[in-house]
From TrEMBL:
It comes from Hydrogenothermus marinus. Belongs to the RutC family. PANTHER family: 2-IMINOBUTANOATE/2-IMINOPROPANOATE DEAMINASE RIDA, 2-IMINOBUTANOATE_2-IMINOPROPANOATE DEAMINASE. One of its GO terms (molecular function) is deaminase activity. This is Endoribonuclease L-PSP. SUPFAM superfamilies: YjgF-like. NCBIfam families: Rid family detoxifying hydrolase. Coiled coil: none annotated. GO terms for cellular component: cytosol.
C-alpha cells in the first residue's frame, strides 16, 4: 500500500490521504472544490465547483502516473439533485470516449458547504 499526495491538489482536510495505491488500484478520496493554492473552497456554482474537482482528481492521477482514462468508477455526492444536468455538462467534458461506471447520490450537506464531492477509483 502506498500513499499518493501532490501539491497540485488540495491537502486533506482531515486524517486521510489524497489517494492510496493498493496493488493495481488507486483509490482517490472524495474531492470538494478546494483550490490547491489557497486551500479554500472556491466560490461559484455547481459547474465551477465540478471543474475544480475534476482538475484536482486529474492532478492526483498524474502524480500516480495515470490519467482520467484509467478511472474505473466514480461516486458523486450532490447537495441538490437538481444540479445533476449542470454537473453532467462539466463532467462529460472530462470523460468523453472513456466513461467510467458511476453512482450519484443526493446528500443533506458536504464539508465546508460544498455543492458537490467526487471520489474515484482508477486502475493501472
Amino acid at each position: 500500500m502506498q500513499m499518493i499526495n501532490t501539491d497540485k491538489a488540495p491537502k486533506a482536510i482531515g486524517p486521510y490521504s489524497q489517494a492510496i495505491k493498493y496493488e493495481n488500484l488507486i483509490f482517490i478520496s472524495g474531492q470538494i472544490a478546494i483550490d490547491p493554492k489557497t486551500q479554500g473552497l472556491i466560490e461559484g456554482d455547481i459547474k465551477k465547483q465540478t471543474e475544480r474537482i475534476m482538475e484536482n482528481i486529474k492532478a492526483i492521477l498524474e502524480e500516480a502516473g495515470l490519467s482520467l482514462n484509467h478511472v474505473i468508477k466514480t461516486t458523486i455526492y450532490l447537495k441538490n439533485i437538481n444540479d445533476f444536468p449542470a454537473l453532467n455538462e462539466v463532467y462529460g467534458k472530462y470523460f468523453t470516449e472513456h466513461k467510467p461506471a458511476r453512482a450519484t447520490i443526493e446528500v443533506s450537506n458536504l464539508p465546508k458547504g460544498a455543492l458537490v464531492e467526487i471520489e474515484a477509483i482508477a486502475g493501472l
